[in-house]
Amino acid sequence: MPRLPAPGAAGGVVNLPQILTTDALLAYLGSRTVTEGPLSGQPFEVLPWQEQFLRGAFADVAHTAALSVARAAGKTSLTALIASAFLNGPLRVERGQVVLCASSFSQAKIAFRHVLADLGLASPTPEARKIWRVQDSANTATIEHKPSGAMLKCIGSDPKRAHGLAPSLILADEPAQWPAATAEQMVAALQTSLGKQESAKLLFLGTRPASEDHFFQRALDGGADYSQTHCAGPDDDPMLPATWEKANPSLPHLPALRKLYESESKQAAQDAAAMASFKALRLNMGVADIVESILIGVPAWQAIECDILPAADGPPILGVDLGANASASGFAAYWKSGRLQGHMCFGDSPSLADRARADHAGETYLRMHEEGGIRLHPGCVPDVSVMLAEAFELYGVPSLIVCDRWRQGEMADALRKIGATIPVLCRGQGFKDGAEDVRGFRAAVLSQKVYVQRCLTWRVTMAGSRVETDAAGNAKLSKKSQKARDDLAAAAIIAVAEGYRQANKPASKAARYAWA
Question: What is the pTM of this model?
Answer without folding.
Answer: 0.61
